[in-house]
Each structure stands twice: as C-alpha cells, then as structure tokens.
C-alpha cells in the first residue's frame, strides 16, 4: 500500500455563541478553525486527521507531501521517525500519525483501540470547562453536568490573581461535597500576543495549599512551565494535591524526564499535540510502571478528541477529559466536522467502534466551510 495524495481542507466554523478561553484572557472566540488532512492510498483507503488551534491557521501541505507521499502508511513507527524533522521545521508530526492509524485500522476492519489491545468499555469522564466564570454561572454549569451524570468537573484558575477562581471552587465544593474537582492553571505554555505573568513557585504553592483546604481535588494542572521539571518536583513534594501536566510537551522523552525528576503525579499527553497514539501508549506504560496516573489532554476538535479516545481505550487511563462549556463550547461546535458529535452518557464516554478512527465526517459541511 502507498500514500498517493494528500488533500488539505482549511475549515472555519461560525460558532453559535462566543467562547472566552481562560488561556487567552480578553479574547472572544467566534470561529472554530481547523486544518483537515486526508491521506489517500492506492488501495482506495483514506486516513484523516486534523490540526486545530494555532496549527489550524497554517498551510503546510507541501511538508506533509514531502514526508508521506509514496510511503506505506502501515509502517507507523518508521514514518514517525522520518517525520521527526517537523519538530524543527514546522508543525509537530503527531497528528499525521493519527491518519496512519486510521488507514491501518480501516484496512484491518477494526477500530484503532482494538489493534492496540484495548476495549470498547466506556471511560469515566470529567466535564472540562474552558472559561473563567463567576460563582453563580459556574454553579449553574456544575448543576447541569451533575444532572447529566458527571462525577467530576475541571475548573479554570488562570491569571495573576487566582482568588476569584478559588472562591468558585469553594462554592462548588460547598454545594457538591462529593464531586471530584480538578483545577487547571494553564501556566505550562504561553499564548502569542497575550501578556499573562506566569506564576512563581510561591504563587503555585499558595494555590495548591488552598486546594488542599477545599478537598477532594484530583489534581492541579500545569501550575508551572511545562519544562520546569525541577520546580514541578519541588511543588509536588510540598503539597498533598497531585500535580498534573504534559499536554504540550513534545515526545516520549520529555515524559521520561518528568518521571526521572519526580515532577508529576498525573501524565497528560495529547495524542495529537504531544506523542501520537503510539507514544501515548508508551507513556501510559511508563506511568503504570512508576505508580502514576495517566489522564490525557483532549481539548481539540472532534477528530483530535476521537484520536485521544482510542488512546484512552487502549490504556489504563483514569479519566477521559470531556471538553464542554456551553453556550460557546458545545459538542456540536467542538465536533462540527463529524457527522455526529461524541456524546457522554451518564458521565462516561465510549470510543467509536467502527474501523480506524470509527467516525464519519460531514463532507458536505466540510466542502462548504473550506476556505483553501
């Protein structure tokens, strides 16, 4: 089998309501911008993948063709090694690996997770917020998610003054004493053209101590820079709240460094952003060997979310992050290029069971939204 052609679609989806991401203070998102790639083969099988966020605004079709056209897509490990220069020249290679697995699964007639020894069992999910909101709005949100069956919610705690966010967490804890909470500081990476002063070690420790008092907090996510292995290790030693991170770290070796330096309790690689599906499975094995949790980041578009679902289903993951923060960030907005959005049922999410990624794309919508 050989990859014969790569099609690129630049998609802009108008969201029905604006979304104000915590990691980009002052910005109001009204569009979901995604770059979709379709890898065609001489066997009549195509594999798909996406890049979103900043990578979704780039054009790198020529790079993809340079590395992949003429290659056998079933040789996943070899092609990932071949694409390593993309870490230097441009976009990371991990999302292309997803398309290779999609082809491999379709040829075998099996979902990706099954090729990797996983199962279709539903995965416990936590509702993952994206905005910083006040107490009353966030309490309404939590009530809705609890009524839907979620037993855990992740809140945002971003910016120079975390006091309002900690107050939200306290009020949520007061009304829902048994609800598992996570807190995401988003200090692991910076957004271009957004001026947010990263927390110092002392500030991160102060937040962690506040979360200790709130109680039943599964983790504090990205309280320091993603490459500050030593600082994360010191923080982990001085708090009882587990420390999580890794969504934008690059490659399995950086997660090996987290483990070597004792930096994290919870490893959170994203299959599209950080490791690929194969690499994520390796990180999961490393986590298991070292007594750590594995709970991947999934905040992407619909295909990125599905790719992470397959990785989750093939590993011993503790939680599935389910991004949802209406009215702006809904399953429909997140998964707009899918024929049907991925829906959580009773606080759990099951991986698609069709061949490859196992989902159908809405090609009519894709063609209508393509601005290439």
TrEMBL record:
The keyword Chloroplast does not apply. SMART domains: MR_MLE. One of its GO terms (molecular function) is metal ion binding. Residues 135-242 form the Mandelate racemase/muconate lactonizing enzyme C-terminal domain. Its cofactor is Mg(2+). InterPro entries: Enolase-like_C_sf (IPR036849), Enolase-like_N (IPR029017), Enolase_C-like (IPR029065), Mandelate_racemase_C (IPR013342), Mandelate_racemase_N_dom (IPR013341), RHMD-like (IPR046945). This is Mandelate racemase/muconate lactonizing enzyme family protein. It comes from Halorubrum miltondacostae.
